[in-house]
Amino acid sequence: MNEKPLFPDLNSPPKPQRDETGPAQTNADGTVTVLGYKSIDGGHESTEPLGHSTQGTAARQPVRALILTGFGINCEEEFAAAYKQAGAEPTIVHLNQVLHGHVSIHDYDILNFPGGFSFGDDLGSGVVLANKLRYRKNTEGRTLLDDIKQFIANGKFVMGICNGFQVLVKLGLLPNLSGNVTPEVTLTHNASGRYEDRWVRLKVNPKSSSPFLKGIDSMEVPVRHGEGRLIIKGEETLAEIEARALNCLAYTDYDGSPTDVYPHNPNGADLNCAGLTDTTGQVFGLMPHPEAFLSLYNHPDWARRKRQNPGLSEEGDGLRLFRNIVEHVQSQAAAVPQEASQFSS
Amino acid sequence: MDSTQRTIQLLLKPGQHDGEGQRVAEAAQRHLGLSTGRVQSTALYTVRYPVSDEQLRDFATHCLQDPVLNDVALDEFRHGSEYKSYILVAKLPGVTDDEGISAQNALGDFLNQPLDIHTQHIFSKRLYFLEHELPESSLRRLAEDLLGNKMINRFEVGPIAQIRDYTPRPGGGAESITNTVPLVGLSDEELLKLSKDNLYALNLEEMRAVRDHYTSIAEERQAAGLPQDPTDCELEIIAQTWSEHCKHKEFSAVIKYKDADTGEEFEVDSLFKTYIKNATSEVDRQLRANGNDWLIKVFSDNAGAVRINPESLFVWKVETHNSPSAIDPYGGAITGILGNNRDPLATGIGGARLLFNTNVLCFGNPEFSGTLLSNQLHPRRIFEGVRKGIEDGGNKSGVPTVNGAIVFDDRYAGKPLVYCGTGAVMPMQLAGLDSWEKNIDAQDRIIMAGGRVGKDGIHGATFSSIELDETSPATAVQIGSPITQKLAMDFLILATRRGLIKCSTDNGAGGLSSSIGELATISGGAVVELEKVPLKYPGLRPWEIFVSESQERFSLAVEPAKMAELMALGQEMEVELTDIGYFTSDGRLDVRFDGESVARIDMHFLHEGVPRKVLEAEWSQPTAQEPALPADLDYTDVLSRLLGSLNICSRESVIRQYDHEVKGRTIIKPLMGATGQAPQDAAVVRFNFESWEGVAVSNGILPRFGDLDAYHMSAGAFDEAVRQIVAVGGKLPNLSYGDGNFWSVNDNFCVPDSVYDPATNPDGKLKLAKLVRMCQALRDATAAYCIPLTSGKDSMKNDFKADGVKISVPPTVLYSMTAKIEDVRRTITSDFKQADDVVYLLGETYDELGGSEFYQLFGELGANVPKVRFEEAKALYTLMGEANEKGLIQSCHDLSDGGLAVGLAEATFGHGFGADVELPATGLALSAQLFSESHSRFVATVAPEDVVAFEQHFGARATRLGVVTQDGQLTVRHGGQTVLSASTAALRHEWTNGPVNRIIGFGQHETAQ
Known about the structure:
Chain A is of the alpha/beta class and 345 residues long. Helices cover 24% and strands 19% of the residues of chain A. Chain B is globular and about 85 Å long.
């Protein structure tokens, strides 16, 4: 497909405005800039240019995170904000841009599937989107799943949250014990039979080697789902998942012990499992929403905690996951000589 | 069975827990007393698309089946041998079937073929098997009461050996027929009959005005080659445009008001103009005089708009969706939410980003055990259906439901009230133009975007303007499709930012007739080519196409030069866009079908021709007295009972099923604290991730006080909403020059029929007088606080009539408020933070137990209705703003239902603290000190080190009550005696185990049968 994309990504500034009005601005050194809307941040439609967090990454090429949206996905803005706060460069694109070949996932380091209700989730969460990735072919006859397999083989990272996790599971990318991307587990209706929004505590499996979870023992995050109960087919699959520590996150009680007791375990998942990685650790998905706990002020008990400890960090637990993967990608990049040379000055 | 029709059935594998089946069996037993035995639930997909056997099998196993959970059966209805009866739940023709459409989407992907997603090829159904052999009548009752709604579903039931299938087959051939309706020369009686038969909902005077108009333009029409009598489409357009829903005829009427007690008489020249519009103009004048020019758009668009900062606008709208929710609670509520979402989305140019939803619901007692009237749904069923509609409407759109309220009163058992509110943010400039302005020039194209048109929702606008009875029409019911709207919303956001749209409006009540009729007033006319409108199925008449209220649609005005780019964007984002005509400036609304005139109406007559109503109102103070209660009340027991009462108890089971934090911006949620069970006052949401600016959201509604005095009820509701925002740290507007501290209020009046009729509505004058008094209070409140109204709605006929009985709602007004929060990190939550903090009462308690929840416990109403003392309230709120500036307040909870005692108890729920409180000897009775619902009061805590500064700041406005304790015990003393002592854990238990959570059920894991 050689025609230009009809449809630039949602993060690009709009096209130049007509000259009599429009949000063009002259900055201090006299340069005229056409200013963009910060679409990663729906509430704040500033005409200020997008800022970049360059903390610790100055002069390095930023880590690029691709975030898919469209068709009922609805957590893309906070997902992008998480990457931005972690020092990466997030780009939100409509799924069709990728499916139609206008955007290549290979230009990015991390591919992200946000939460939401893709295609309404009417056939079971994530099913329709997973089908699209598996069967819909582009003009070259490749499916997006083909590209994703290549992407992973290239050592890159895939993350799915909530509905995005469901997509990765229904697609068979998680846990992918067999290596041939067929579904081995499923996520289905919570044992309570209802959708719930509540905060839970997670414990990280100390044996997990996924870079997403490095150095994290536990975290608090909200769950917001009706179909988050992990069901593992067969004892063997279960044993292998445990043996390889792919069940990387568990719901715990107040003492930090994994539990099947409601509401600490909100959905009755097998192994009390809240998240999975694949065997490489590069693909990671979880039901809870770390991107909804970027700031202390997201936590239901923030006001009391701040009173108890006025010096409390304003960052939320969820941000650590994003910092981890961004730092990991940066360290990988630094380890590759030819790329590193660009930054040596 | 049709030869090309195939069936896929999904069953749970043996050993998998059938939660749905179990819930159906339990509900049948609990609500209907039917013993079903085990119930097996299965999903059916009927495929009406040519596929080979192999394709069908592969599609079923690869796309529909969950390999871990499901077995698949093809072209059969498989079931266990133990089952004896079945129930099939299908959808009626034309009813939204998102699940079928999704399956079809998957089939298109699987075959790698572009399927036309707007022709339905796959139909979803549910098939249930029951272990017991039940008679058809019981099965049908189970189906209609628990599994679906006969307005939207088709049920087949019977013994399992004879399963009947049903697949909708909508439509029947095009019917491009336009009839004329003989009108000229009709008598009064004939006019009224015509209006009633066709559901025009126009009264005699209005029908006469239409007849006389057509008589007067006979020559002109003849010259244009038009029939003398109006076409069916023309009358439908007039009926829709003149409906109470769209024209607010009663709020615009001349009202002759008489006070029977004092003999005072006066005339109100339009309630809207006098008490709402003029009051806001006065507020705006004061704001501007003080350098506060943030009021951008009021009353003139789909939603009001205020300025947040130089870059962005806050857009805010609240509406009701009562009548549809009475007939189909789920469909009514979800359509209400999605419809209300479209208002901010389509304000000005359009493309605002939705920030939050808030919902206020009024229901009858869900534990009602009496006999229902014909076609009256049980209040519990309405409650559960509406709750589910809000869950899907908000969650699936990715809009957090940040707070709300549920009010119970037996008088809402006929018609529930369902208020849906949505806040949104929009840039001040879109592609270089002022985003809030609507501009249209002649020759601009009219584009319909989003869903397709069917027969659903025909007559919604006129139907909502009449009272409900047992013959209410099924076509008035619609079901929203959140996914369709989400796609249209994403499209609109991008298209407006790229300058492709001149302005947009939503297709809600009245459909195209209303949206194009209103947009056409900007350019001065429009030509609509109805044959181009995409239909869900054939068989609609032109007038039906024009007034259908099929959901998820927007009408856009687009410059011809932008058409190509716009259509390409629509195609890329899979949003259907159709060019259905153009705007003109010739003063006519000209509707055609295949070149034939269907309607040609003078725009001036259409919008200005409705005769003004003249109505009568007569007020007399009700006689009421204070009750004599037993002297030896156990106040601990009273508090326990209050916490477990219907209007005070926890709503957690409802709240947790709404996503209140998607978008990651919700700072104060409905329930907070370490326990996640401390109820909060206003919600607080930040606008974005880069600044700490945010907005506080509150709702004030107090229908009970209206039984004593509608003026004080309305004033109190306004104050309740204000004080909730003040409690979380919001500041009143206009306190200093150019402070930019915006407030934006929506007023929503829902009243019973208030037009006097000696036979059918003998107390109509009193009801109207109550409405006048509610409006007077609103004017006084806006003036006192300098808080502007930006938008609002009125719903005037909230009565349900059946079997010769009328159930009318109490006159109800909801004030939904939003206010700017400069820094969300400095907001205050309601729960106690630390032991030894000092507890204060802010504001004054009066002997005002009239209408209180306390009296309600004893079945009494009382007489002393709480009154708002605006001056004192404003002074206190101003002091609180200053105190928060200095960080003097650690927790703050506004006092309302249940008074001080309930407020204190609720503040302990966040962490399990207690409080040791001594009530002052003020001469006020102890019961009033504990339970009076006097307005403008708070319970606040202060850190020990700030006590001196705090007391100095508030002076006499603060009363020291005691301290927060570690021991989890609430102790209240008075005159040296302990008058109330309870474990706060026990109180919280009473509160969380109240009727609401019992009815909706807690979310514990189900145990398999």
